[in-house]
Fold this sequence. Notes:
By secondary structure, this protein is α+β, with helices and mostly antiparallel strands. The protein is 31% helix and 24% strand. It is built from 8 helices and 15 strands. The strands form 5 sheets. The chain has a 5-stranded mixed sheet. The protein has a 4-stranded antiparallel sheet with strand order 5-6-7-8. A two-stranded antiparallel ribbon has the order 1-2. A hairpin with a 5-residue loop joins β5 and β6. The longest helix is centred in the middle third of the chain and has 16 residues, at 91-106. It is globular, with a radius of gyration of 20 Å.
Amino acid sequence: xxxxxxxxxxxxxxxxxxxxxxxxxxxxxxxxxxxxxxxxxxxxxxxxxxxxxxxxxxxxxxxxxxxxxxxxxxxxxxxxxxxxxxxxxxxxxxxxxxxxxxxxxxxxxxxxxxxxxxxxxxxxxxxxxxxxxxxxxxxxxxxxxxxxxxxxxxxxxxxxxxxxxxxxxxxxxxxxxxxxxxxxxxxxxxxxxxxxxxxxxxxxxxxxxxxxxxxxxxxxxxxxxxxxxxxxxxxxxxxxx
Length: 241
């Protein structure tokens, strides 16, 4: 299997397994954009359209946003800034925010939700049961709810899908009472083994696409990604911007 590591403001680094180097994918197109070279590198191209710089395409893939030459033969990673105004404007971040909000809408039925009685805002939080900062956030869940912030959890086992945390998350998502099971797992309490068509692998892949590198990772309603634990008294002003 082929993997591509995208590093901000750097050129691409690609690692491929020898077993698949001889694979020759059939050329595919997204509009007039040839995806065959990116496909060979391990990308799954979801959409491609001309960027706001001549000769470049804005390409959304299963590994996030990249830019490609209009012939599909070269790619670059990084961010594009519009510097025509008084302050630089991160054009790429707007694309990423829209991508995140669109994708989150498609997984709304797979989250574990703590609903605020007087809901004013909704956040999505990529969480790991073994993460101390995730536990700190969860210990204050009632404060988020009291502030009108509904919390929707997604599973993101930071040590991978083979880790104990991944199993704990799977058990929590498959439990009859998901909220109780998730709280128990975050408190190092035993959670009954449960089997179902859980979304943990899907959430993990989504987090990687979004640029999640650790937990907790909070996605605001705008699609903006905030890495790390943000207490409710600091989060609310961010949501109100």
